[in-house]
Amino acid sequence: MSRGSRLRIVLAIFFVCLLATPVLLKKRSAAARQTEQQESFDPQASLARHGFYLQEVSHAAGIDFIHQAPVLDAKLAHIMPQVASMGASVSVVDFDRDGWPDLYVTNSAVGSQNHLYRNMHDGTFKDVAAEMGVADVNQEGTGVSMGAVWGDYDNDGYEDMFLIKWGRPELFHNEQGHGFRRVSDGASLPPWINANTAVWFDYDGDGLLDLFVGGYYPENVDLWHLANTRMMPDSFEYAKNGGRKYLFHNLGNGRFEEVSAKVGIDSRRWALASGAADLRETGHPDLFVANDYGVSELYRNDGKRFHEVGESAGVGFSPKSGMNVAFGDVFNQGKLSIYVSNISEDGVLIQGNNLWVPKEGTSGDGMKYENLARDMGVELGGWSFGAQFGDLNNDGTLDLFLTNGYVSLDKRRNYWYDFAKVAGGNSAIIGDAKDWPSMEGRSLSGYQQKHVWLNDGAGKFVDVAQMAGVKDTEDGRSVAMADLWNRGVLDVIVANQRGRLLLYKNSVTPENHWVGLDLEGTKSNRSAIGAQVTVRWNGQEQMQQVAGGSGFASENDRRLHFGLGRSSVIEEVVIHWPSGRIQSLKNVGIDQICKVKEPS
Amino acid sequence: MSAPATMHPTVPTAQDTWARRLFTMENRFIPPIFITVILLVGHFSFGILESWKKTLLAIGCSLATELILGRTMTGKWPHLASAYISGISVGILLRSPALWPYALCAVIAITSKYVLRVKNRHIWNPSNFGICVMLFFAAESVTTLSIQWGNSLWAMLVIWSLGSVILWRLKRFHICAAYVASFFAFALLRAWIIGDPWQSEISPITGPEYQLFIFFMITDPKTTVRSVRGQVLVAFLVAAVEMLLRLDQSIYASLYALFLVGPSALLVEMWRHSRRSPLVNSNATAMLTGDLPRP
Fold first, then answer.
1. How far is CA A441 from CA A72, A77, A383, A411, in A?
2. CB-CB: which of A238, A317, A347 is closest to B148?
3. Local confidence band at B151 (pLDDT 50, 70, 90 cut-offs)
4. Which of B115, B133, B138 sits opposite A11 (nearest CB)?
5. A188 Rama sector, left if φ>0, alpha if ψ -120 to 50, beta otherwise
6. Which string of DSSP letters, residue by residue, matches B116-180?
7. In this structure, are strands B143-144 and B94-95 parallel, antiparallel, or unpaired?
């Protein structure tokens, strides 16, 4: 055999091996997925193996809520499931200050009622929205609800509510827990915003909560009375024709001044989620905005002005479909990482979710981020929406709950081909709803499995959703976490578009300990939003912050929950209050919720 | 995507200006320069690349494979223009959060040139082959570029105009024109058949994937038939098969259509040629691992 023939044979074998590589990888990946999906819910096995399990108890808890989606202008009828695909949300608030978390749930059809579920302390909830005056907020001509965020803007001790709408935004003042009074007009809110995100935070450190609101559709679009159909994004990845952004500076006495342009926030990207946190240890909360159809934006706050540094910080380079902002100290190093959800659909669009982790050796204004979602196993989550960090098994590391699924209609037919066809086209086509093919009852990334990623503390997250009891495949939007029944565990609440509100009651192995911290500001805003708490135990430490909104259209319990693993001693709790005061607490007991008031 | 046919370079004279030298440069350098310009303009205007790392990995793997295989199989150092275009095309067209698909796709693309040969010609466009293999076998890990580069009409017109001029100069504009005309005709036919807006049917061709597809894949001289009439017919057939695939809701219809039609057309041409010139082809072997380029 000649040398040439031998070479050709070797080359042919090499080529076959190359072709076989993706096939083998696919088989391995498919086998892993099948194993995950076939895992059956076994509470005792999950408890023994993962230290917790979840049970869906909404009906038993007296909640039988089904979300109603908006029905927009008839010109959008052919793509209605796609454009009317948001509005289901849940936020946690103790509105009556009885020490038990309550739930506010939004509805999104004109004339539908929002629900305020009061915690009855016995495992059940009762809807008191109507008597409290926050139910009938989706009236004809005023738009419909998309979410709610809570903050005590007048420091009277009771959490007030900003209602995020496609329509007339509303601010409700909490009347000492006995009802709510609409104060939108006095607060100088604009007549119409098509928003999906808002966050309370004290950007200038004056002790009064300010409010950021991120527009999605432009504010001059009335989705129920369209002048024309050119209201879609003009690009799938570079759209800048969305709604404007608002920063309402709290002037006190219930008045607000819109200062976004004055402080350097000027964007018309399509915002879907936002969060505020002091990411650089400057004492000033920075603002992170996840945008649909484009890059994320990171606004650094110097105390007076904001500077958009997304690209230089590494988080604003690749345009994706940002739908979530959640902060978490995933490595127990006292630094917050940022989880942004995007879209992944096999064979069509693999954006991958982002876990932005501060780069080693960078800090302050030079802080940069790298995406470790793939390395840590939290990258692929389908058409992802809301996600929250929380220690679900009290082992001392933050886990991640992700919900997903866009439009679940006909299981056998999907809209992806038509979606991809138009999404890749020029702005003249993608930007006009009439150019989009009719959905005709087809699904678009529907019926997706949720993800419950357990942090192993060594740099990996493992999906245990099926075994732990999360088997629903509804179109998830908003996720919130709270210790609903003061048992020392984090329960999970999920709001689904056109679907049920799900309550996942958590059961955690009693061997793991915990501590809850309920903060109240004095010089700082009374909600203590922006306070960063570091708990040190057994040579470890974890930092969490009090947030005025996080995830997608949601808000967690104001109280912070730390798992401690087997450790029964807390070495120290350090609180960085928004006022700048640093408070150190020793001898904090475990397995209890500690109330902490900012020293005056 | 592969390098264009080599034409005789013009010998510069003392009177030549740099501009004249530029416009008379050897044709094989024009497509690499053009695709590099597209990459740089697209990236610095709109950030089309997820990361330089991935694109450079694809280019690096492509060049390294070409050097190794070219030297090993032919005994000569190969010209790298073709491999550069293949690498850069993989870097732009492939989308994956992982690094390995870029490397694997580039290596498969270049290796296919040396393995899948009939009568001393490779029959698949290398990057078309590599990307289709990845889409067939690694759909959970990769997709292709299917979104816009910004939303500017003028940017699209500039790329189309520049590309058309270059193809005209390379005497391949008729392929581009035949394909585009066929695509539009079939798009209107599809819209009529399925009842969707005609704008949604022409939408794909207004995106960047098609610019790369047209300027660097279907016009690739190494993997197209030789007669002008044949080239026009093949372009039409690619659009026709694409239409059938689109009726079946295949997202990557254009890539798959070329994957099917391109090699088939070449085989038919070879068969017809062998019937006309039996002596010339008596030594040829029609095997996948046929003759390699002569040293």
1. 16, 11, 18, 9
2. A238
3. low
4. B115
5. left
6. SEETTEE-S-HHHHHHHHHHHH-TTT-EE--S-STT-HHHHHHHHHHHHHHHHHTT-HHHHHHHH
7. antiparallel
Give yes or no for a contact between A314 and A368, defined as CB atoms under 8 angstroms apart.
Answer: yes
Averaged confidence pLDDT in chain A: 96
Which of A11, A18, A422 has its CB closest to that of B200? A422
Distance CA A506, CA A509 (A): 10
Burial A7-31 (b: 16+ CB within 10 A, else e): bbeebbeebeebbebbeebbeeeee
Instruction: Give yes or no for A237 touching B (CB within 8 A).
Output: yes
Where are the extended beta strands (E) located within A497-559?
501-508, 513-520, 532-537, 540-545, 554-555
Chain A positions touching B150 (Cβ under 8 A) are 235, 238
Taking the mean position of all CA atoms in its chain, how far away is CA A274?
8
Task: Please enumerate in sequence order all residues whose Cβ is within 8 A of that of A444, keeping only pairs 6 or more positions apart, or say none.
Answer: A81, A82, A383, A406, A407, A414, A415, A416, A419
The single-letter DSSP state of residue B12 is P
Q: How far is A564 from chain B (nearest CA, A)?
A: 34
Q: Does A420 touch chain B (CB under 8 A)?
A: yes
Nearest CA in chain A to B156: A426
Which residues in A lie closer than 8 A to residue B98 (C-beta atoms)? 374
Specify the pLDDT at position B93: 86
pLDDT tens for each residue of A261-301: 999 999 999 999 999 999 999 999 999 999 999 999 999 99
Name the DSSP letter for residue A168: S
- The number of C-beta contacts closer than 8 angstroms across A and B is 164
- Cα(B241)–Cα(B257) distance, rounded to whole angstroms? 5
Question: What distances in angstroms separate CA B159 from CA A71, A589, B55, B242, one per listed residue?
Answer: 41, 68, 20, 23
SS3 (DSSP) at A109: coil
* pTM recorded for the entire structure: 0.91
**Cβ pair B199:A432 closer than 8 A:** yes
Q: Which of B51, B61, B143 best probes binding to A when mutated, by most A CB atoms within 10 angstroms?
A: B143
DSSP B223-237: GS-SSHHHHHHHHHH
CA distance linking residue B187 with residue B181, whole number of Å: 10
Query: In the structure encoding, which two tokens stand for residue A360, read together?
Result: 């080693």
Q: Note whether A21 and B105 are within 8 A (CB).
A: no
Structure-block tokens of residue A408? 């679940």
Closest CA to B147 of A415, A430, A317, A290: A430
Q: Spell out which residues of chain A touch residue B207, defining contact as CB-CB under 8 Å.
A: 424-426
> Given an 8 Å threshold on Cβ–Cβ distance, is A234 in contact with B151?
yes
The owner of tokens 């300027």 is: B215
Mean pLDDT calculated for residue range A515-524: 98
- Which of B72, B150, B199 is nearest residue A238 as measured by Cβ atoms? B150
Strands (E), A524-570: 532-537, 540-545, 554-555, 560-565
Calculate ∠ Cα A141-A145-A151, nearest 5°.
Answer: 125
Confidence at B278, pLDDT banded by 50, 70, 90: low
| Cα dihedral A4, A6, A11, A12 sign | positive
Q: How far apart are CA B119 and CA B128, in angstroms?
A: 20
Please name which of B212, B214, B295, B217 lies closest in space to residue B263, comparing C-alpha atoms.
B217
Q: Do A417 and B289 touch (CB under 8 A)?
A: no
Q: Do A351 and B133 touch (CB under 8 A)?
A: no
What is the complex's ipTM, to 2 decimals? 0.86
Per-residue pLDDT, B10: 42
Least confident segment among A346-360, A502-516, B8-22: B8-22
Please state, in angstroms and rounded to a whole number, the distance separating the CA atoms of residues A485 and A491: 9
Q: Does A432 lie at the interface with B, CB-CB under 8 angstroms?
A: yes
Tokens of B134: 């990845």
